[in-house]
Amino acid sequence: MDTRPPYDLLGVGIGPFNLSLAALADRVDGLRALFCDAKPEFRWHPGMLVEGARMQVPFLADLVSLVDPTNPWSFLNYLREQDRLFPFYFSERFQLPRREYDHYCRWAAERLASCRFATQVTAVAWADGAFTATLRTAGAEQQVRARNLVLGVGTEPVRPQAFDALADHPAVWHSGEYLERRAGLDRARDITVVGSGQSGAEVFLDLLRTRAGDGTRLRWLTRTRAIAPMEYSKLGLEHFTPDYTRYFHTLPGEVRDRLVAEQWQLHKAASAETLAEIHDLLYERTIGRPPTATGAEIAPGTEVTLALPGPCGGLELRCLHSDSGAPRLVRTDAVVLATGYRAVRPAALEPLAELIDWDEQGRYRVGLDHRVATRPELTGGLYVQNAELHTHGVGTPDLGLGAHRAAVILNALCGRTVHRLPARTAWTSFAPSALPAQSAAFSEEWNRAPATSC
């Protein structure tokens, strides 16, 4: 047992969001923080660091800049340390290569003294006014205590239920493993990508580039009715501001759930730039040839209802067209599932499960400050990062809100304003304007009076 005073903050998991919290906490005098991750080093979606792939957010969505641009863990300071400021300046690109964002985060993670890798948090309990966490490093265990706990364990890949019969099939895997397993597609002559988000678009684009002209048939299926670009207008992007988060949090739970499903084009679609590159490649393939000679098929509105091993080898996908209801049988050699990710409840949290106030669907009830509702006897702060889509809206997984959320959590657990945050961040007024004091009488008169012209 660590006999020192409890840490002020223990972070479980070191992805971009807890790394942002570590970077902002690094400049708080007197704050003792520890962040642990079972992985040997920081890695950010390594299976999708495809050559040429770019971030969907500007470089200012780094670990700290939108809260504290003077912080030494900013992306611009990283460029300075790497002697890359002038090359970045001349590149005139607001969005970073994915590989550079991964390297930037690794640069910070390796230098932050509070970050400890190859250290798994196996269990967390509450006793004697503090969280007690069991840490395992190289087979050895130790226990540490902390007043506050922040879960940043990330998300896990989603495999649709239709593919249960192929759970261990070597030719069916998630896009999160794409780069590691791409070589396994070399013998496949028919490849199907399922899912129309950014990952699906990037996988399909990479296959178009690398398998062009070798006779391989490529197919892109998605149950959404259109291959639609992500909403990227300036006012549309205001859904990724703290203003919208605060508004969304005030809505009834059933309204929030409905909105998240309806707003898929804000956070689950592909970038218009990636879709344009796909179109350009297909156009190039058909110069002097029939339009059908691309060797590729894009089929929206097509849901895979059942996937099975084929009777003569390969795979069979039983599909349904959403508009016509027409069934379709697809035979293919390999499937890449670009079917997204979902939040997970870490096994280490099980000793605390009875002390957490779960909602009707077994999800965290999360306050505006990202603190999880718990029973009164758990007096420490339990916070979550990227597990509150249902309470905080589409900005939850967005890197652009990462630094702001980290600052909100830091202010809350410190009990003071460590980082000053803006009161207004959007031009849009998401909530209805407040009515005047005589609103009750006005509403009664409004409902009684017939409509009149001005």
Task: Please summarize what this structure is.
By secondary structure, the protein is of the alpha/beta class.
Description of the molecule:
- This protein has helices at 16-25, 75-81, 85-91, 98-111, 178-181, 198-210, 242-249, 253-262, 264-267, 272-285, 389-392, 402-414, 439-448; strands at 9-12, 33-36, 54-58, 95-97, 115-116, 120-127, 130-137, 140-146, 148-151, 155-157, 172-174, 190-194, 217-221, 296-299, 302-309, 315-321, 327-332, 334-337, 341-343, 381-384.
- It has 454 residues and is α/β, with parallel strands linked by helices.
- The mean pLDDT is 93.
**Number of helical elements:** 13
Helix percent reads: 25-40%
Strand portion: 15-25%
Intertermini distance: 76 Å
* Biggest β-sheet strands, sense, barrel: 5 strands, parallel
Low-confidence stretches: none
What order do the strands of the largest sheet run in, or round the barrel if closed? Answer: 5-2-1-9-20
Instruction: Give the overall shape, derived from the CA principal axes.
Output: globular
Architecture blueprint of SSEs:
Layout: E1 9-12, H1 16-25, E2 33-36, E3 54-58, H2 75-81, H3 85-91, E4 95-97, H4 98-111, E5 115-116, E6 120-127, E7 130-137, E8 140-146, E9 148-151, E10 155-157, E11 172-174, H5 178-181, E12 190-194, H6 198-210, E13 217-221, H7 242-249, H8 253-262, H9 264-267, H10 272-285, E14 296-299, E15 302-309, E16 315-321, E17 327-332, E18 334-337, E19 341-343, E20 381-384, H11 389-392, H12 402-414, H13 439-448
Parallel strand pairs: 1-2, 1-9, 2-5, 9-20, 11-18, 12-13, 12-18, 13-14
Antiparallel strand pairs: 3-4, 6-7, 7-8, 10-19, 15-16, 16-17
Helix pairs in contact: 1-12, 6-10
